[in-house]
Design brief:
The protein is mainly β. It has two helices and 17 strands. It is found in: Cell outer membrane.
Length: 308
């Protein structure tokens, strides 16, 4: 714990130093806590849960007209106090890189481009219905180099290389082609096609699309994965829908995971958000997972999210 706080203190001091050198630095974060009734398969219980709450420092420093240094140091903070001793603060995306006419190169700890390709289709990211609970591929990897081209007619290519990091290790790659704006503010449609090769022992493929139709925001992801060591395969589909009216956003999504041998898993979630301000929302959701070979799971929650 002391080392974690020391690391953050060092980060703050480094940020202040960079500010003096004319770097453009932002301090940002998110506090997300929910009160919920949870059933992981062994019976229900109540809990207060911190849902990927975080704090971070990010910014840039322009070297000349064609070259800029970019950096980020982000930490997850467990605000519910349930983490193990010394693990209440953990690393998230942390990197430094260069940006220019050639695109952008980042080196450090980062989400693979396949993970990034989901955009905002997963309407319950960081909660119990997060797509990572049924699928592989939601990987934040250390020892990475990520390159993204500049956008051309809305298209952008991204590649993540994961270094072996040891004599017995295996390197891996993640590749994605993006189209449009994931926030759907600069384009009417967002789409992506992504592939992982031997990332955390899996070959994975994903196709993602999202757009707005008659007041609804509709999205879908097709997912396929194969465990490299065993050859076991799984195919999955996620469909999400959101409808906003005044300060309310009504949301629903379903997700499937069909494994070799008939081990089928599925989940559905319904929920609602109420926006108190641009920075703050109240929310509620209900999630159910139906597991062929395991116990079913249920989650009912209400929470608050504050971004700064």
């Amino acid at each position: 714990m002391k080392r974690s706080y020391s690391a953050i203190a060092a980060g703050i001091l480094a940020t202040c130093s960079m500010s003096l050198m004319a770097a453009d630095v932002d301090i940002y974060g998110k506090a997300n806590l929910s009160a919920q009734s949870s059933d992981d398969g062994d019976g229900s219980y109540t809990e207060i849960k911190s849902n990927a709450s975080r704090i971070g420092f990010k910014g840039s420093h322009q070297i000349d007209n064609d070259l800029t240094v970019v950096f980020k140091a982000e930490f997850q903070v467990d605000l519910d106090g349930d983490s193990e001793k010394g693990k209440s603060i953990t690393d998230r995306n942390q990197y430094v890189g260069l940006k220019g006419n050639f695109g952008e190169v980042l080196i450090g700890n980062n989400d693979t481009v396949l993970k990034q390709s989901q955009g905002k289709v997963d309407l319950f990211s960081d909660l119990n219905a997060d797509i990572k609970h049924l699928w592989k591929g939601e990987n934040r990897m250390s020892d990475t180099i990520t390159y993204k081209t500049k956008k051309f007619n809305g298209f952008q290519l991204g590649v993540t290389y994961v270094a072996e990091d040891s004599v017995d290790g295996e390197d891996a790659t993640s590749v994605a082609l993006f189209y449009g704006d994931k926030a759907l503010k600069k384009s009417k449609v967002y789409a992506a096609l992504a592939f992982d090769s031997e990332v955390k022992g899996y070959d994975t493929a994903r196709a993602t699309v999202q757009g707005k139709v008659a007041g609804f925001t509709l999205g879908a992801i097709y997912h396929s994965q194969e465990e490299v060591s065993s050859g076991k395969e799984m195919d999955g589909l996620l469909i999400s829908a959101k409808y906003s009216i005044n300060n309310w956003a009504l949301k629903a999504q379903v997700q499937t995971a069909d494994h070799d041998g008939g081990d089928d898993k599925s989940g559905f979630t319904v929920g609602a958000d109420y926006k108190l301000a641009k920075s703050t929302k109240l929310y509620t959701f209900y999630t159910n997972f139906d597991m062929d070979s395991g116990a079913d799971q249920d989650y009912l929650a209400a929470g608050i999210e504050y971004k700064f």
